[in-house]
Structures are given as C-alpha cells and as structure tokens.
Amino acid sequence: xxxxxxxxxxxxxxxxxxxxxxxxxxxxxxxxxxxxxxxxxxxxxxxxxxxxxxxxxxxxxxxxxxxxxxxxxxxxxxxxxxxxxxxxxxxxxxxxxxxxxxxxxxxxxxxxxxxxxxxxxxxxxxxxxxxxxxxxxxxxxxxxxxxxxxxxxxxxxxxxxxxxxxxxxxxxxxxxxxxxxxxxxxxxxxxxxxxxxxxxxxxxxxxxxxxxxxxxxxxxxxxxxxxxxxxxxxxxxxxxxxxxxxxxxxxxxxxxxxxxxxxxxxxxxxxxxxxxxxxxxxxxxxxxxxxxxxxxxxxxxxxxxxxxxxxxxxxxxxxxxxxxxxxxxxxxxxxxxxxxxxxxxxxxxxxxxxx
Length: 355
What we know:
There is one protein chain. By secondary structure, this protein is α/β, with parallel strands linked by helices. It folds into two domains: 2-198 and 205-234, Thiamin diphosphate (ThDP)-binding fold, Pyr/PP domains (Rossmann fold, 3-Layer(aba) Sandwich), CATH 3.40.50.970; 239-347, Rossmann fold (3-Layer(aba) Sandwich). Helices cover 39% and strands 23% of the residues. The strands form three sheets. Strands 2, 3, 4, 5, 6, 7, 8 and 13 form an eight-stranded mixed sheet that branches. The protein has a five-stranded mixed sheet with strand order 10-12-11-14-15, with helices on both faces. Strands 1-9 form a two-stranded antiparallel ribbon. Strand 4 (72-77), helix 4 and strand 5 (99-107) form a beta-alpha-beta unit. It is globular.
C-alpha cells in the first residue's frame, strides 16, 4: 500500500478513485470543496469523468445516469446540499441504483454555518429522502478510517444496489493525517445483468422507481426490507473501550469520539470507571453493543455529540431501553468539544461529585 499525508477530503476522493469510481458530479459547498477540486485533477488521469454540475439536483441526477450506464459513481456535499439531493437519492433507492454519497457535515439547520457539526445525524440515518427507504451510513473518526470506509462503501453499494452515505464533518474533512492508501481497482463489478448499455441482442431494460402495480411494488419493498435486516445481522461495525468494569458508558461517533477517547484516558487515571461505545455504522446502529453491557454495573450512559439538540441520543435511548439512565452532553454553534468538557460532564455523573 502507498503511504501519503493527506487532508481528509482529499483522502476520501483518492480512496474513491482507488475503489474504481470513474464518475463524479458535484456542486461546491464548504466544508467539502476539496473533494470535487481533487476529482477535477485526478479523474482525467485515470480515464474518468469529472463534472461540476450547475446545482446539487443536476449533480445527483448525473450520478444516477452514470451508475445506470455501468460506472461506479459518487457525489459529495454538505448539510443543505444534501437536502437538495434528497429527491435524487430517493429515486436511486427506489430504482435500486448504487452510488456513494459523502456528506461532510456543517453545523446548524437551514443554511447553517460552515463550522463542523454532527447535525446531519437524523437526516442521514433516518430520512435521507422520502419513501421510507434506508441506507448504510458510515461515520469515520480518523482520516485513515475515512479512506477505508469510502473504499468499502462502493462494494456495499454494488452488493445491495442501494445508495451508501459516508458521514464525516468539517474537522475530519479538513485535518491532515498520514494514511495508507488501498490498491487501485478497476471501475467495479460486472453489471451486465441490469445496466443500461443499449439493447443490442437482448430485450430492453427499464431502471425506474415508478412501479404502478401494487403487488409488484410491495414485493420490491419486501426485498429491500430483507436487505435492511441483513445489514443489522451482518454489517454492523463498532468499537468498544474499557467496558469490562465500566459503571458509566460514553457513546460518541466521528470527531466527538476522538475527543471522548482522550477524556476517557484522563478519567481512568482518576479512577473513574468509564468506558465507551463508538458506532462506526450509525445505520445500521450497533444495538448489540448495548445489549452486551452488564446493567447490574452500568448505571449511566452518556451520548456525547457535536450538535444541539442531541440527535443520536434517541438511538442510544432505544438501545439501552430502561436498563440504565441515559443523558446527553454536547456543544452547538460549531464549537468543537474539548476533552476537559467531556471529562467534566462524566464527573458530574459520579455519585457525590460536587462539580
């Protein structure tokens, strides 16, 4: 494998190229602009195509067309841009068209602010579009993990013929770290059983999200539901730390998990029995990690998030049930959590702590 020192956004783009992505269409929006910029230089060198679309709507439509034509295709955006892409993402899910979508999230609703945040959690994991479909959502916490998950995301998308989201934030996208880059691959698996490549010597094909027959539509939806169940059984990824004797468990993903991990070391040095669950797939969510906790000992679970109001805490509450107390701690407005703030939030959960 090649080693390089890359900014997160550039590393994501290079990982996509190495995974066989040969078509990219996107529209500029901070804090993900280095992704299309990188593709604009890199794609011609590998025989691929880069298009700066006139809008997010146009870009996601072009990506769907390229995927239907048999190419591994990708787009990227940030929070409000994802809202504009939502109809196209829904259409791809309804037509069983694979793609990879990178969301380098900013903070806040509406236009928000270019500062990093985790305010995209609910949209990415619960409703990336209309129609009740689901997508796999990967949440890297390092640049290396962003590389590895982007590279893998294309395989998952093709396996399931479904969109996949890589959910990062402005810090992951902007920081520079040393990474090992995966090997170069061609532009994906054989799609000749469904791709639209001209009906020469075969019956014509239709790739569409419009299914007029109710029974046929229900059968398609049932087949999708079976895929979602398979994800929950086989594809969940998470990391745990210091859970063997933990009385307090911190749950965090992405950048918040990096910060919480540093706080964990400080708290352990103080003798506080705290552990951590870090979801890597935030969809499907790692409910099994919570079922494995010993609730005779674990009395409090704290969701740590870089957004206000907290969003992942609802999944944490569902995972814990009534077996322990659940609360949240976070910062909004683009403020990045500090290890000291997280450590202080955990100390407040220790019986008798006066802070």
